[in-house]
């Protein structure tokens, strides 16, 4: 709904609850301005509503009903609170006016008795606020009908002679008595307070009180004037909004914000144990049986965990979609974990489906006193992620040392985009050697960041979703460099090899990215070798076939020699397989098995290469095993260093 339509609807809702002395067009324009200001300043909007006289008993609830679909609950809560404050200020302004009228009427009673009494009576009787004039003993000298209605009597006359304190809550008598004395003795001019009255029928009613004194012609105090505003509906609405802000709407449990607040309160008392519970495979229920069934199951889970929490005098909250948090006074962790699993495992029939769940559980037991609530929640979540990584129905206890290591890795991953932006990620080139001829076959383009090699850098990029754009950048920059080598050294230029990670290997845009890089850089297809992660090919991805059809030589990286991998070599046109296995030593019983594997690969018409070979002895062991090439025998070099070596080995093209 657009703002003009919403303003029109709001106008009709308000004019049905209160008389606003403006035309409909003027009201609608004022409300349209309010809608535009509401997200930035709900307090200004609340004051405008009161200034428009939209102050009927139902005006606020009508406003909330109209605006709730379009604005956030927290914003409406602020609007409600500001509206209540504006109403109070408006009421207090009325109170001051009434007080002035009362004082002036009393002072001029002898000379303008009839006029002043008429004015006083009109204000007194027609005021929307309850008004009582009491002597200093607390007995009502006079009260209006509005006050009588608030306290459950027929008319103001029923209050005459009665003690006004009879309607105050017993718990408030001491505080209010002291406040009345302070006004009478002149320590304060007036006091305002929010209190609970007890009606004649015993029902409570929340009110705002404003108390001042009446003085005689000599300025001496003679009576108290108490003005009473009924705010019961507003109080209930505020409590309802507060509850909704602090509780989960589906399960009724505390939400994350409320749970963290309670956790903060417990940190300085008894030692605690914090459990972060994440349901296993809950998406299977949502995707298989529907979200309605999933919501019903969450309510059942909340009820079962709630019973467990009650038995342990623990605090329970739903802090995420399928995640709950339980805080207990330090107990037997293993026992509590089993109790949680037992509560979830019991089959439950939801919409005629018998469903049972398990959970991963992260535990923080007896945290140090200096730990903050936010830090404990993070630690519990980290432990839950660790438990989830182990499989279903697992739990993990937070390990500070392991957590510190993981946090360092996460911090490094989070800083990678900035490092890339500032040019801290470099491309280096690892030589590829033929084992028989010792000839340099090419160079593998790899990433290098600080002390991290290519594989570690790409693993961090995978964790942040940066691996695809980073891989495309590596492909484009390496092809551009290889094209420059071809232009300068011709046939002596090294063939460019690029090993792709699992995500990039199965990327649907890979072939287009490779062709675009070749077209933009001018590198001929025969000058490029692409090594795909073998897991993507085993999963049925056809990028290797399409690349081959486009004239690009391909290899399979991560080869381990399993039956499925060997079978793939009979189906996918690849030139080479690349493994990272350790070199088969002369005394190893695996030496012959490795030689047989290499022989089998050769029979399939595929070359066998080994990555991460850093010593001449290891290279010789692989040569004897039948391998064709190795990567990493010499340190990786920058593009400039490779260029310098090429220039030293042979003169540039066209030189005499």
From TrEMBL:
Example GO BP: regulation of DNA-templated transcription
Domain GGDEF, chain residue ranges per copy: 270-400
Domain PAC: 191-243
Domain PAS: from-to ranges: 116-187
Residue ranges constituting the EAL domain according to the UniProt record: 409-652
NCBIfam families found in the cross-reference section: GGDEF, sensory_box
Protein name: Diguanylate cyclase
